[in-house]
Amino acid sequence: MxxxxxxxxxxxxxxxxxxxxxxxxxxxxxxxxxxxxRSMRWENGRITVNKFYSEVGxxxxxxxxxxWGSATASKIDVESLVEALKRACSIAxxxxxxxxxxxxxxxxxxxxxxxxxxxxxxxxxxxxxxxxSDLQAVGSMVESRDYVKSVVVRLNEWMEYRYIASSxxxxxxxxxxxxxxxxxxxxxxxxxNVTAYKNMGRIDGYTFFDxxxxxxxxxxxxxxxxxxxxxxPVKPGKYDTIVSPDLVGTLIHExxxxxxxxDFVLTGSVLAEYRGKEIAPSFITVKDVPNVDQxxxxxxxxxxxxxxxxxxxxxxxxVKEFMTDRERGALLGQDPTGNARAEGYRVSPLIRMRNTxxxxxxxxxxxxxxxxxxxxxxxxxxxxxxxxxxxxxxGIQDAYEIVKGEVGNPIMVSSIxxxxxxMLRNAVGVSKHFKIDYGFCGKMQWVPVSSGGxxxxxxxxxAPSIGAV
Amino acid sequence: xxQHQSLSLHDAVDLALRHASRLGVSxxxxxxxxxxxxxxxxxxxxxxxxxxxxxxxxxxRLDVEGRVVFSYVNSLNLASIRKLVxxxxxxAVSSPVDPYFKGFYEPSREYVFPxxxxxxxxxxxxxxxxxxxxxxxxxxQEYESDKFKVTWLYMGLGEARQVIANSEGVYEEFSSTFAxxxxxxxGVDGVNRSPSIYEADGWRxxxxxxxxxxxxxxxxxxxxLRREKIELPREYRIILTPEAFTELFNxxxxxxxxxxxxxxxxxPFTDKVGESIxxxxxxxxxxxxxPGKLGSTPFDGEGAxxxxxxxxxxxxxxxxxxxxxxxxxxxxxxxxxxxxxxxTSPPGIAWSNLxxxxxxxKLDEILEDGNVIxxxxxxxxxxxxxQTGDYGGAGTPAWLYLRGGEVKPLGSISxxxxxxxxxxxxxxxxxxxxxxxxxxPYALITAKVHTI
Lengths: 469, 452
Known about the structure:
The complex is a heterodimer.
Chain A: H1 5-20, E1 27-43, E2 46-64, E3 67-73, H2 78-98, E4 112-116, H3 128-143, E5 148-166, E6 171-189, E7 192-202, H4 214-230, E8 240-243, H5 245-257, H6 262-265, E9 286-289, E10 311-315, E11 318-319, H7 326-332, E12 340-341, E13 350-351, E14 355-358, H8 365-369, E15 374-378, E16 381-386, E17 391-396, E18 399-403, E19 406-411, E20 415-419, H9 420-425, E21 427-430, E22 435-442, E23 446-453, E24 456-458, E25 465-467
Chain B: H1 9-22, E1 27-43, E2 46-64, E3 67-73, H2 78-93, H3 120-127, H4 130-143, E4 148-166, E5 171-189, E6 192-193, E7 197-203, H5 210-223, E8 234-240, H6 242-256, H7 259-264, E9 284-286, E10 309-313, E11 316-317, H8 324-330, E12 338-339, E13 348-349, E14 354-356, H9 363-369, E15 372-375, E16 378-379, E17 390-401, E18 407-418, H10 419-422, E19 427-435, E20 438-449
């Protein structure tokens, strides 16, 4: 099996030998990624995508006079790895020729270690027919309603092995399973077109249906469709707002988390001005962490071999630190947080989030909303986009009015726009709930991430603006 | 690990075809690619990374009596390809039958090779990146300042040789190059910050000059440093730049006119071929033969010859865009719109080059007339619902042009509407923008503006 124990020993041996035969610059490393997996899509009664794959490749990096050069190889043998390192060296030298830079890399320990995220149910131990049956069961249940026009159910599962070795003596490998299940449905209710989306992620193998049933998943999707169908218009604008945990996660990731990535901090993020300063009330703590229960962003080591640690971005209302790689850690005078991640072997690591969360408080939802005369509860997001000044735009699947302290009727909200810093600054309270969601973050390359938090109440002044249709 | 000599691309494709045939499959399609790519990223006045990829891969679709499997491998050697085919066969025999699958594309038309899809200059730069690195460094150093921040500059160049073959007799290849540049910037003046200003360009036959993108971005950033308030919420006439208009089109009409939307009946236009679905101002062409443009190819991801086609003609829907699979379900022929974003994914349906024909209004006349908001981009437009045409997002940056010539910078505005309805009063300009994989005019529509 690709990436199994025998292959691991070979890969590490080749990497060690290649590094020993090479020299260039201040630092160089090799990262080999081996991945095998499957994708399936069930669509309106049939399987339309049935994909499986297996690949392995290497990424070589050289740091020369403050500049990086990188090159890849899809053959894993000593000669090919050395060739990739030489190409990376040549590129780094070429870049250094044309420019000057004093950048260095933050020190890290020369760790020799490995970690295998535990697998409760191996993908290969689950018969293909069971997976097809799961897709079909959920899809058919959703499709059974007359008002449903189209249903797509997706399954992605893959096993990833990462090997990192460097000129500084780092020698680590880490293996992890990922599984993702998502349902998207469209329909027409009361003359209105409706869309709903629900996803699940697991990092212990094919265990989706250990804690939830097909009926429950289908039910969540149908419930959202029906609520959209019954939703009444609402005047666009700002209201006292409760942000659901799902949406909190999206906003904390998209509209705030990216501002705290050190490469953006150094090139224009508005958060750079707030280091050490109060940005929100003291009950607001935002972290990017490398380990939460079933976190898609869980890692032990990042793609530079840095042991991953919590990045406490906002600590009780004060901006404390940023997510860094080794280079930006040195520039900011901060220990690297282990946020250097890359999608596969074909691209270089960038500063990426892992599991980005707003920490919960101690309010119940009832307590959070009891004194709201009229407000809104924003439900599940549909995806969003944000800027380095904190402004954002996010699509909304479902939303509800809050009347005299009670959650009421669904309302029509297509999207919201706002500013994440204003939102946190005007936070009124956070609940004791905690929930994470699963997805993929794109920053010219895709990595699996989680995000989440509690219910968050925001006063009208700082709340996102509702763009109803 | 057994290592074998790399095969040539043709030999790898031929091997895959032969090995699959020996297994007695009903059909096989093999897509092979060898490519080189140079990627330069820069920020804060300096280059942050330069990466070179040189690799190849084989992607395979096997049909075993209607059981279809997709798989790929990222190495071109004997052992890997045999393993790929054997593995795909094993998966296929235990997969369900797709009752709608009617075989791979059968050749039926002549191929036309678009002009200017390969540039020896781009090819040379890949192995000798000195000029590329120098041009990025000089551009970023010239423009980066206290008042203008280049948060990101990207330049990507590539060269690829692609082969597609199948058991129905398709066997074609072509070589192409591409070059893309993108910049993300902000203007800063004391406490005033502009919204993010994004510019991009891309071609097959030339390297976009990052200086030109930065020049445009800087001009916009400095014009949008202040933000003024306007009467809200209300409807405004909105003039969308070609980039904003094509993005909105892509996520609404564009998605609705793909064959998958036709077959699934999620498109609001499924039964409207031959009928008016937009005002007469709108004529839209899918043209994969535009010289030098990024979407130009002689054949699609299944080996079907590509050809230009009017999709909407003066508001009348003429055709949907199909690959072979959805075309056969619908009872049509493939329109040559099967697209592969990379060899690691099976083909899907996509537009090639989007061409929206210009109108006869001058942009200056619209702006001089006043009371119109000029919107550079709509962030979040990807959340638009093609089933209904509803869209919402942040129009950023935006300016209000008043009668008499006054221009008020608005920063970002929250804008929403329904494009299928809002475009009914559309006016398209004579001026067009031609870059990347689109050529389109500015578009005047009406939309709701909520907040700044």
